[in-house]
Design a protein that fits this description.
Length: 978
């Protein structure tokens, strides 16, 4: 083992060698500010000779900005504390600076300071480069536009790198020149001329620093611009102390969009790392520009889209108006076609001619349906369709609709049924006409596309929230069905499941599109389930408000039917099910069988068990043994003498009724059955007066037009329409005078002797609305009121309201039809004739109404009177509500209108007090003085309460009398209430 080499402490020479080897800067300074000794690293790094370093105060080498701090630090060391982390910049011989990190200690006894310094320039630069990159990234993330980003980018780079001036250049639109967009400099820099020179210049590719960067699409570095041969701004840069510079391109892909350049007050060696980083920043700015350009393009696109949307809306509106106008134009000649055809059909004609005319009528009706559909559709498209909100009776509305469709179903021998679940509320608020339109369309389609079997409408209560009820409707058929792939398209406008069916079945493909929109307006959805060849079920939901429970009495009052045994005989299972449900709901005891033979068995059975049926409900049309044969067997069997027979007959088969008469069947009903009628028929059949129905009585049906001849004024400018209207009125037994504008109408009214005006809305000189207003204001002076009925072809939403607001009393849309007109007149003649109110007539003997005067007013026709009462009882709560609401809102004109209407209605019953209070309220509304309105309204309510009670009694009496009359003649005719 060799002995370890002995280590002797270093000699002075050893230590000098060490010091000379060190890469750090070692020095000894005196306390006067001079270096006394420096190691060779100083010469190597800073470029001075040792003598140069030792001969000048060291502060001269320190960066002017760091001198003050250096003096403070030197004083601290001289006073005894050592330093370990002081940094400052030392100038190199070429003018550049390097960052030094110092460690020092003082030797007082020698008056010397021993120092060592490390070169931290590279670390400092890296930190500055990172700071610059971070700052630019932040600016780009936050800036909204390039214009707002550029000055902040220049500032961020200058401040992070400690450079003095920055400029940004953009390639001009033609791509030929670089133009300065923006410059920035540190506040302390005196670079006014350089700044101006930069702003006023442009550069071509390759020229100057920006031009070079542009043409090479790469960063470039100039150590000292003052000495660069390709730097046109060299002299002013030198004057204002700018030396090092670098520039880098803004790149999108390979394309240079612009250039950024920066200047320092010092001469600086190229910094490849910095240039690399700046390249990345250039691309980042490029991406920013690209993104902003895309956003701008998107904004422009969105603006264009908005403009296009507005144009489309405008176009739709124009289209809707066009359709409304076209529909008007089509309706006017159709008015003539339909009216004249109806008139011609009333004359003596041959069978052949009748056939032709019937064909014309059928086509005209189809055309009218199409025009109506188009109008609806255009209104929906233009979002102009709004739903009404009126009180209505759901069962009546639906059952009446089914009635209208029944002949079509029965012609095809289809069973048509309607089943409304007992839970479904009856008194609703909504748009009954539009609901009917949906049901008409779905049931109409079902009948159209079904050859055998049945079509059933079912309604159930789905959910209830506060006063809103969601109802679920379904229409099921056993028809041709719809293939799965077609089930979605049929709800689109003008589309049909199979274009070949169009020719066979007809139709436009608009019905379901309209229904869908209406259902959506009613807050519901529509869908279909179907199997080809097996049938379809259309479901839809809709939300309605449930009316506040009115004066309905508890079911105990119609106990007559409780526990009544009834036999249902029908081959159709759906019908049996519906009837069973209905009877069970009325607390009866139903038994249902599917054939005549089974019925006879059940009857035998009931005798054996000594539990005879009180009523047998027979379907007239059944296979094997039909209802009539069963009825014959029953009525010929003495054992069944006590049983009441009710026959279910089919619409469109008048011989059914004749057979009922033959067989002396007292009661018959036409399918589809209305629950209210079924109730009446059964109660009457078992010999009980109809005291009360399970729900609110039906609205009055078409009142027959007054027997007397009316003097009618037709105000209409179109000659053909004048003729049609005249003839129809004449056919209805009235006398007609014709005028062709509103002004003439006013004169005619002032001349007197008129009972009714049928007023066109659009007329020259003075239109129907203005004429009505003029007539109403003239009437204020006379205290008269002539009923005015609008006749309009426009049929747009709001027409009706505008007519009523102008003071008209009724409304009928063209083409004028016999029945509708008759109905409209019937309603109008029940309207107020205040001048005829027997204000000074003797008071009624007892009660609030004068029965005798009342009867006289309807020509002694109790039936008409009953209709009036029903109409009034249905209308009165609504008017009262309107009055209350108008008072609540402080809406004087609305109060005036509502009170006027109510006054007119109570006027019909010669109810003096109610009339007088209504009049007071009307006056308050007209004068805009609502102070005492609330009080008057309370009085009115109690007066109406008494009046309603009396009227109900009156109706009851007359109906009881009527039923008794029927009882006497029951074996001879139907008990159907006419
Ligand atoms: P239209 O009946 O006037 O053609 P709709 O919009 O009412 O228009 O119906 C569109 C299509 O949907 C019909 O043409 C038919 O092909 C199909 N469709 C509707 N209801 C039924 C149904 N109950 N059974 C079979 N197909 C039906």
């Amino acid at each position: 083992m060799s002995a370890r080499a002995r280590f002797n402490p270093p000699t002075e020479d050893d230590l000098r060698e060490f010091i000379d080897l060190s890469l750090n800067f070692l020095c000894i300074a005196d306390t006067e500010g001079y270096f006394k000794h420096v190691n060779p690293a100083w010469e190597a790094t800073f470029g001075y000779t040792k003598e140069e370093v030792l001969s000048r105060p060291y502060l001269e080498f320190v960066h002017p900005d760091d001198r003050e701090a250096t003096i403070v630090e030197a004083t601290k060391i001289a006073s005894g504390s050592s330093t370990l982390s002081f940094e400052n910049r030392f100038r190199c011989k070429d003018g550049s600076y390097r960052w030094l990190l110092w460690s020092a200690v003082v030797r007082h006894e020698k008056g010397l300071i021993y120092c060592t310094a490390a070169d931290v320039t590279e670390r400092k630069r890296e930190a500055a480069r990172l700071a610059a990159q971070y700052a630019v990234t932040r600016v780009l993330a936050e800036a909204a536009t390039l214009a707002s980003a550029t000055p902040r980018i220049l500032q961020a780079v200058c401040e992070s790198l400690d450079w003095s001036v920055g400029a940004i250049w953009r390639v001009d639109q033609k791509g030929k020149l670089l133009c300065c967009v923006e410059t920035w400099h540190v506040p302390s820099a005196q670079v006014k001329e350089f700044d101006q020179g930069t702003h006023s210049r442009t550069f071509s590719p390759g020229i100057g620093l920006p031009g070079r960067v542009w043409s090479q699409a790469q960063p470039a570095w100039i150590e000292d611009v003052a000495r660069d041969p390709n730097f046109p701004r060299a002299s002013i840069a030198a004057q204002e102390g700018l030396h090092a510079a670098f520039g880098f391109p803004i790149l999108v892909g390979a394309e240079v969009l612009g250039v950024l350049e920066f200047f320092s007050n010092q001469i600086q060696q190229p910094d490849p790392r910095l240039l690399e980083m700046m390249s990345a920043i250039g691309s980042q700015i490029g991406q920013f520009i690209e993104r902003k350009d895309a956003e701008d393009a998107l904004r422009v696109y969105a603006r264009e889209l908005e403009v296009a949307r507005k144009r489309a809306e405008e176009a739709t509106r124009a289209k809707s108006e066009f359709l409304a106008n076209i529909s008007h134009e089509i309706r006017t000649p159709m008015n003539a076609m339909i009216g004249m055809t109806e008139l011609a059909l009333e004359t003596r004609i041959t069978r052949e001619q009748r056939e032709y005319l019937n064909a014309i009528q059928g086509s005209a009706d189809a055309l009218l349906t199409l025009v109506n559909d188009l109008l609806d559709f255009s209104k929906i498209e233009a979002r102009k369709l709004q739903l009404d909100r009126v009180g209505f009776n759901l069962r009546d509305a639906l059952e009446d609709t089914m009635r209208v469709l029944a002949p079509r179903a029965h012609q095809k021998e289809l069973e048509l049924a309607c089943h409304i679940h007992p839970d479904v509320p009856d008194a609703l608020v909504g748009d009954p006409l539009r609901l009917r339109q949906i049901v008409m369309n779905l049931v109409g389609n079902a009948i159209k596309f079904t050859e055998h079997g049945e079509v059933v409408l079912r309604v159930q209560a789905e959910s209830r929230r506060n006063r809103d009820a969601q109802l679920s409707f379904s229409v099921t058929d056993t028809g041709i069905g719809i293939p799965p792939e077609k089930q979605a398209v049929i709800f689109e406008a003008f589309s049909q499941a199979d274009s070949s069916t169009t020719r066979r079945y007809g139709g436009t493909g608009l019905g379901l599109a309209i229904s869908m929109q209406l259902v959506e307006l009613m807050g519901g959805t529509i869908s279909v389930e179907s199997r080809t060849g097996q049938g379809s079920t259309f479901h839809f939901t809709a939300v309605f408000q449930v009316q506040q429970p009115g004066r309905e009495k508890p079911p105990a009052r119609w106990r007559t039917l409780t526990d009544l045994p009834v036999l249902i005989v029908d081959d159709n299972a759906t019908n049996r099910r519906i009837l069973e449900d209905v009877f069970t709901n009325w607390h009866m005891r139903p038994v249902a069988v599917e054939s005549g033979a089974a019925a006879l068995c059940s009857l035998e059975e009931s005798l054996r068990a000594d539990q005879p049926f009180a009523v047998v409900l027979l379907d007239g049309h059944m296979p094997d043994m039909d209802g009539f044969s069963v009825a014959k067997r029953i009525s010929h069997d003495r054992r069944y003498a006590g049983i009441k027979l009710v026959m279910l007959t089919s619409a469109g088969q008048p011989e059914d009724v004749a057979r009922c008469h033959e067989l002396e069947i007292s009661a018959y009903l036409t399918k589809p059955i209305k629950q209210s009628e079924l109730f009446d028929v059964i109660v009457t059949a078992i010999g009980q007066p109809v005291l009360e129905r399970p729900r609110t009585p039906q609205r009055p049906k078409r009142a027959r037009a007054a027997n007397r001849t009316l003097q009618v004024l037709v105000a209409e400018d179109n000659q053909v329409n004048q003729l049609v209207a005249t003839r129809i009125f004449q056919k209805l037994g009235h006398q007609v005078k014709v005028v062709s504008n509103g002004r003439e109408a006013l004169s005619a009214v002032q001349a007197g002797g008129l009972d009714l005006i049928a007023m066109d809305v659009q007329m020259p000189e003075m239109d129907g609305l203005d004429a009505t207003r003029a007539i109403r204001s003239w009437e204020m002076t006379t205290g008269t009121h002539i009923p005015i009925m609008a006749m309009t072809a426009h049929a747009m939403k709001g027409d009706r309201e505008r007519c009523l607001a102008a003071g008209m009393d009724g409304y009928t849309s063209k083409p004028i039809r016999f029945r509708e007109l008759e109905q409209a007149i019937a309603q109008l003649i029940s309207l107020p004739k205040p001048s005829k109110i027997p204000v000074s007539a003797g008071r009624p003997a007892d009660g609030v109404i004068d029965h005798a005067a009342l009867l006289a007013g309807v020509d002694g026709d109790r039936r008409v009177l009953r209709e009036f009462v029903r109409l009034f009882l249905a209308d009165c709560p609504r008017r009262l509500k309107e009055i209350n609401q108008a008072i609540g809102r402080g809406d004087a004109p609305a109060l005036c209108r509502a009170a006027h209407m109510l006054k007119g209605s109570v006027g019909n019953f010669a109810a003096r007090k109610a009339f007088a209070v209504s009049q007071q309220l009307e006056n308050m509304g007209r004068d805009g003085d609502l102070d005492k309105a609330r009080q008057a309204c309370v009085t009115l309510e109690s007066e109406l309460e008494i009046l309603n009670h009396e009227l109900e009694e009156l109706t009851k009496n007359s109906s009881t009398r009527k039923k008794q009359m029927h009882k006497g003649s029951r074996r001879r005719g139907g008990v159907k209430d006419s």
